[in-house]
Design goal:
Number of helices: 7
Order of helices and strands: HEEHHHHHH
Strand content: under 5%
Distance between the termini: 97 Å
Strand order of the largest sheet: 1-2
Number of strands: 2
């Protein structure tokens, strides 16, 4: 988490939870650890250490071997934002998952896609015969009607001599 200001509860979907469960118990406290091989020539490995960052050598090696050398850890935030939006998840929930404090950050990570924009425009392609006015338009019409219904002046007859 950016700044590591406080600990957060991480909610996982079933796929992510199965990954956590597959390594549970390998360390008494942490789910994801690494072990350095001893460099002094003796057999075995050092005690496991918790992963301190996502952008570690294991991540770098995995993306290189998968042919995804241009994939960065931060790209995963964009991916989750986009997938949540595509799934129809509401904006406040989309903000809570990556812990965004600002709605502008949620929007930045989950911008509308062409399919979504096209779908929205398809909703208005047919003239349904319904009409809808803005509140400002209704207020202007009401003010105009009030001016038109003021008591009419009674015309005065001209006096003839």
């Amino acid at each position: 988490m950016k700044g590591r200001k406080r600990s957060r509860l991480l909610v996982c979907n079933s796929v992510a939870q199965s990954v956590v469960e597959s390594v549970r118990g390998e360390h008494h406290e942490f789910a994801f650890v690494y072990q350095r091989r001893k460099t002094d020539g003796s057999a075995g490995v050092h005690q496991p250490h918790p992963l301190g960052t996502m952008n570690n050598t294991a991540w770098q090696r995995a993306r290189r071997e998968a042919g995804l050398s241009d994939l960065h850890v931060h790209d995963l935030r964009h991916t989750i934002g986009m997938r949540l939006r595509e799934a129809g998840v509401g904006e406040s929930t989309r903000a809570d998952i990556p812990w965004h404090a600002s709605p502008t950050m949620t929007h930045h990570y989950s911008i509308a896609q062409i399919v979504e924009l096209h779908h929205a425009l398809e909703k208005i392609k047919d003239d349904t015969g319904r009409w809808n006015k803005s509140l400002a338009t209704l207020k202007l019409e009401q003010q105009a009607a009030q001016r038109d219904t003021s008591p009419a002046r009674v015309p005065q007859q001209e006096r003839t001599a």
